[in-house]
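One example copied in:
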Amino acid sequence: GFLPGDLAQKIDPYLRPLYDALYEMLGFERVGKLIERNVIEVAPLAYMRGRTLNESYIILDEAQNTTPEQMKMFLTRIGFGSTAVVNGDVTQVDLPRGQRSGLRQAAEILARVEGISFTFFNASDVVRHLLVQRIVNAYDQFAESQDPQ
């Protein structure tokens, strides 16, 4: 709706961080060729419904902003020979107040499911500017001080 252009042009602003990472790892030309040959497909979560992704490496980025229903839908798209990576930061949820993060819920539900593992990062894992690491630490300390335990 609100953005002009075709679907790719409409969703491109939201996918820019993903494209930036691909370009950094593989180079602009190579990424373009891989997308052209459908080796790499970038698609909005809404277009995953009904699909089965066999023989694929599937990445769900910014998963903290999925609803529980969207997360379940995504996870049930995994087909034979595929690996799925779900990433997100539950401290940066942009969902409306009161809406539960699908990532947070999935971590609780799937913690003991065989074949699923979780990796949690902290401020020492930040690969951006050193200032970002200090910002993350400050927010973590603030959150801990607010926790009523």
